[in-house]
Amino acid sequence: MRLAWAEPEDLLAHELVQATDEGKDVADVRDRWVAAGGYPTPAVSGAGSAPESPELRALARVLLDELDARPAPSAPREPDDWGEIAALLPPAPTLPRRPSGPGGPDAAYAARVHGAWTGRAAGCLLGKPVEMIPRAGIEEILRSTGRWPPRRYFTAVGLPDDVAARWPWNGRSAPTSLEENISGMPEDDDLNYPILALALLERHGRGFTTDDVAQLWLDDLPAGRTFTAERVAYRNILDGRPVPETATHHNPFREWIGALIRTDLLGWVSPGDVRGAARLAWSDARLSHTRNGTYGALWAAALGAAATVCDGVEEVLDAADAVVPPGSRLAAAVRLGRSLGRDNDGSEAGVRAGLDRIHAEYGHLHWVHVLNNAAVIAFALTVGRGEFGPSVSVAVTAGWDTDSAAATVGAVVGALRGADGIGEQWTAPLDGRIATSLPGGEQHIDDLAARTVALAAPVTGG
């Protein structure tokens, strides 16, 4: 049996890429690995990037230890400690702490939270069946079924056999995420994690620690439903390694997207308080991620905090910028996405040109990395101009981590527009239900939203 995201020989191939991206000189390690018979580049799926042999596995562990111990060039603009991160941030924006609305501020806030849960589910569901399929394949599938650009969920109805053979659906997702077989939101880690965050706050409050997150994973999160950095961190927890070693030991995925998908809810319970949301996100993210992987979590939480009170996408993005170290690579990725979206007319040609530019900049990274996907999220939100369908469609047709990027985008736009403003073609198939692999099984969006609102930080003004 080969276990994706955990075999030492596969981790080493990914570590060679990650260490190089961090500025480490790894040529000697790569040469030793290749000379021994290892593959120098990782497989797309995270498994099978080296022949199986006890000797190679033992060597991979030795080389991973060497790379872990090898210092990266000084990066003062990308610290891991919260105090050092906060010292780099600009002043937090002054935002209203509750949105206004015809039903009063609390009713308006509750509607935003309900929209965020609904939008996150709908965006994730759109991207599920084409996760791991590249841009060209996604477009060919959509065009061949008459759905380009997507304004409804994917379908296999009318899909030519040759296209289906060339671009097979995500095997785990297709049976529950094509329009003809959707019955509620199917299980997905992009929804498991906000539900876990809800349980975390209900058990420990806003003073939770990273150790509390680790214990919650052990109690409630099946190991087989973790991936990339979370799977490595889970292994490190079971190995008795302390935080933050859980995020660094043999973990080449430490700057990937996993932490970003976990923290929306920490923003939803912090309406208008982007800095407070980011601080909560840091406590969660550091279990499994470092530097830009952590910053992605801070940014996602701030997007959630801003989307529950702001009036438009640009205001949300401006507010969330205030929690990302300005000299970091994550900040550069977000700036690129936003700049390409602002100068874009949203036409098919314009969107294609924007995505081409993002792929030219970040196409060397794995499809689950945080930098390329953050650029896509920023671009999709900006060019979508607050419309749900166009925004999540851009996030999905960009390729890469289609369900995660569209979930984050969908949550922001869903909060801004409310569930009624998302569109029945997206909301009706959800039927207000979310399947999970967590204790308690299927959840109802109404209940999740009510529990979220009950946890909102008490505030008295702006």
Automatic annotation (TrEMBL):
Binds 2 magnesium ions per subunit. Keywords: Magnesium, Metal-binding. Mg(2+) binds at D401, D403, S404. InterPro entries: Ribosyl_crysJ1, Ribosyl_crysJ1_sf. Pfam families: ADP_ribosyl_GH. Its cofactor is Mg(2+). It comes from the Bacteria. The keyword Magnesium applies. One of its GO terms (molecular function) is metal ion binding. Gene3D superfamilies: ADP-ribosylation/Crystallin J1 (1.10.4080.10). This is ADP-ribosylglycohydrolase. It comes from Promicromonospora soli.
